[in-house]
Structures are given as structure tokens and as C-alpha cells.
Amino acid sequence: MKVLFAASEAVPFIKTGGLADVAFSLPKALRKIGMDVRIIIPKYKNIPEEFKINMTVLKDINVPVGWRNQYCGIHYLEHEGVPCYFIDNEYYFKRDGIYGFYDDGERFAFFDRAVLEFINHLDFQPDVLHCNDWHTGMIMPMLKAHYRDNPNFKNIKTIFTVHNLRYQGVFPREILRDLLGLDDGYFDMHKLEFYGGVSFMKGGINYADIVSTVSESYAKEIQSPDFGERLDGLLREKKQQLYGIVNGIDYDLYNPQTDSDIFMNYDWDSADNKTTNKLKLQELLGLPQRADMPLIGMVSRIDNMKGFDLVVQIMEELMSLDIQMVILGTGDPYFETMLKELANKYNEKLSAKIMFSASLAQKVYAGCDLFLMPSIFEPCGLSQLIALRYGTIPIVRETGGLKDTVTSYNEFTGEGNGFSFNSYNACDMLYTIRRALAFYMDKNVWKHIISNAMKGDYSWNHAAKLYEELYKK
């Protein structure tokens, strides 16, 4: 089976969030089980030169963008056995950054039409076109509107995966004719219209043959008004075509036995080596080196959605406990300032690294004892999966993929790989942290919980098979 996987970003070429991890690691896993899956993304300015110099130019074509034609170069590179295509247009993509421009509607209208023209001009004819998040949402309606009589598209089926429903790509009505080449009949609440605008996300959901999202719990949550972002009614209508599949992580990339970014490699059978990573991390952060003191980590976008209002609310009480904490990330200036002030006040207990560093993130995953994720919502979450893989025990709120992947430890059965709380409030979170710290003090119990965590399978093996079934369906 042939699958073209269209996304706006993919590691290791360009990344702003978890979508990029999925966009490379899932096709890689699918190829391992015998499927011909290929990736297509824009060729951004910020793709590292080491990749650009090895790309091959396959073809130059023109792409219709409403009433105009725009140049499109199709470039190719194979990476780790995965064929990758890059859509080149310097006017749209030769910029610093990849989102947040005034003309994002035009940029991704071009990309979506270019993906379809790619199929029309090259000899790779996919059976399934797998699109991801709003940036690829207009591929499906344009396919049906502009290519339904084209024999190259006769048998193509589409899947649209929602990674985060909050970001929807809503633009003015004028883009219908001007950029997408669609008539005013599409400005209808049953088609593309969304509260007076045109929604790329709604286009993907409405016109795809199957809709998927990144965890079973999130698939249920987005059918409710609380999490549906005003699309819950549509998603309830589509529930027979809506599937939730939990993401995995790339075991080649996230492996404590081989990770070159951590201080000492280890596995579940040599988890004592994790203590070395902890001591070295404490030294790097300027915290007192104490093997016996529990170290709690967070690697996150720093904003309200990720639960930082709860974190700030209980920080004084947390700092009264015999713990240390490290927070790595960037985001809301208000929370950044608060965390810096708290880190100055509690400089022997709290380290706030307001920055992005992939290398330091790996050291946090390997060196901490506990990993905190109190998100308001979390479609899937990758951080808790990485933490589990590295034997760093997650404390999470029971939502989305966090609920599906972290099982709260049961002292009576010995089952569980972490700790969780249900209600979004600071008291419940603090109670759960205290509960985890109590078990940390019993070294035999803690070793057992680490073993439960590290022996779990968080790879793409299971998810890849489920996607294969979805493609066949």
C-alpha cells in the first residue's frame, strides 16, 4: 500500500511541536512493516543546510492559487530510509519561522494545492493521502472540487488527523475564490463556513474519508463542548468515521541506552546509573548535589494550557518540601517572569531555564525522578512517553493521551507506571505530588515503579499496525 503523508513540519528538518515528531516517526514505523509511506512538507528557509545540500530537484511545476499560477519546485531527500519530498517556493517559505505570518492562509492554500499537483506530475500514485492538522485541511475539499474527474485521483482515499483542535486555520471568506478556487457554495455551515470565516480544520474534518486523532480519550473529549472548540457538533456527526490512536515515540531517538545527550547511558536493569545523571544534572543547574532528594522536572511550553497556573499557585508549598525542581521551556511572559522570580528566591531548590534546548531536555528526562504534566488538555503528549522510557515517573492530569498512557500506581496490586489526578485544581495536584513523594521514600517500591515504567512499550509498533488497519479500512 502507498501512502503520502502531508504535514507542515517534520523532524529532523523543522519542528515547533509534537506534530513534527509524528510526521517522521510514524512513516518510519509504517515502512518497517512493509508499507510504502512517503512524507511531503514545505521547504522552509530554516531547514538545516546539511539537508538542503543533499536534496535533488525532481521537477519544476506551476501551481494554481485561485486565479494565479505560482512556481513550485519539488525537491527530494531520503532520510533514515524514508523518502521525503519538499515543496519549494521562496516567496512563501523563505522566511524565519514557519507560522504566524499575515498571509498564512495563502501560504498553506498554496502548499495544499501543491501536494495535489505533486500527485498529478510525479509517478508516485498513493492509495491513501494522510493529512495532518489545519495546515493541510484544504487538500480534501480541493481534491473533490478540482480533481474528481482526474484518473490519477480516482482511487485515492483520505485520512485527516487532528493533532490539536484548538488551532484551526480560520481565514476570511474571500480566500474561497481568491486562493482556493472554490465557489461561494462552499461558504455554508455544512461545508467550510465557520462563524463568518473559512476554516481549514473544518475542511479536513468535513471532506476526509476518515478522521483520526492522537489518543482514544481525546477522540471522545473533542465531541464535547468543553474540548470541541466549537466543532463538537460536527465531530459528533462524524463519530462513525472518527478514530483515536495513541502516538508512540521513536525508540531510535529516545533510548537511554544509546542517547549521546545524557551523562551516562542506562536501561531498566541498570537504573542505578540514573543517579549519575541526576547528580550531574544538579551540578549543571547549580543545585546542591543530593542523590537522596527527589528531583521533579518539567519540559514544556510555559502557558496556561500546560497547567502553569496550578504550578505557580502551589510553588511556595512545593518549595517547603524536601525536593528540587527544574523547569525548561518558553512561553507566556507572565509565567516566565513568575518562574524566574521564584527561582531567584529558591535558588537551591528551583532551576527555571527559560529557553529551548533539545540536549538539556534529554538530560532532564534522564536525570529527574519525577516528571510533572498538569495540562488542562493534552491531545496525546509525547513528554510523558519519553519520561516513562527514561524511568522518570510522570505525575499527570487525567486528560487525553495522558489518561491513556499513564496508569496511577496501585500499592495493593503493584500495577501502575505513574501518578494521576482528575480534577483541574491545585489541591488535587499537590496531594498527588505528595503521594508520589511518599512512595519515592520506599526505595524498593520506587524501583518497582521505575521497572513498570521502563518495561512498557511506548514505541510506534502498536500504533503503526492500527494505522495500517485504518488505511485498509
Write the layout of secondary structure elements.
Blueprint (H helix, E strand, L loop, with lengths): L1 E5 L11 H15 L3 E7 L6 H4 L3 E10 L2 E12 L2 E7 L1 H4 L10 H18 L6 E5 L6 H8 L10 E6 L7 E2 L3 H4 L14 E2 L2 E3 H8 L2 E4 L2 H6 L10 H6 L4 E3 L29 H12 L9 E5 L8 H12 L4 E5 L4 H13 L4 E4 L4 H10 L2 E4 L9 H7 L3 E5 L2 H6 L13 E3 L4 H15 L2 H13 L5 H12 L1
Parallel strand pairs: 1-2, 1-6, 2-5, 6-7, 7-11, 11-12, 13-14, 13-16, 14-15, 16-17, 17-18
Antiparallel strand pairs: 3-4, 4-5, 8-10, 9-10
Number of strands: 18
Side-by-side strand order of the widest sheet: 3-4-5-2-1-6-7-11-12
Number of domains: 2
Shape: globular
Based on CA atoms alone, the radius of gyration comes out at: 23 Å
Q: Report, as a whole number of angstroms, the end-to-end distance.
A: 12 Å
Helix content: 25-40%
Mean pLDDT: 96
Poorly predicted runs are none
CATH architectural designation of the largest domain: 3-Layer(aba) Sandwich
Report the β-strand fraction as a percent range: 15-25%
CATH H level of the largest domain: which superfamily? Glycogen Phosphorylase B
CATH class of the largest domain: Alpha Beta
Q: Keywords for this structure?
A:
single chain; 473 residues; alpha/beta; Rossmann fold; 2 domains; 9-stranded mixed beta sheet; 6-stranded parallel beta sheet
Description of the molecule:
- With 473 residues, the chain is of the alpha/beta class.
- The protein has 2 domains: 259 residues, Glycogen Phosphorylase B (Rossmann fold); 188 residues, Rossmann fold (3-Layer(aba) Sandwich), CATH 3.40.50.
- Helix content is 37%, strand content 19%.
- It has 18 helices and 18 strands.
- The strands form 3 sheets. Strands 3-4-5-2-1-6-7-11-12 form a 9-stranded mixed β-sheet, with helices on both faces.
- Helix 5 links the parallel strand 6 and strand 7.
- The longest helix is centred in the N-terminal third of the chain and has 18 residues.
- The protein starts with a strand and ends with a helix.
- 48% of the residues are buried.
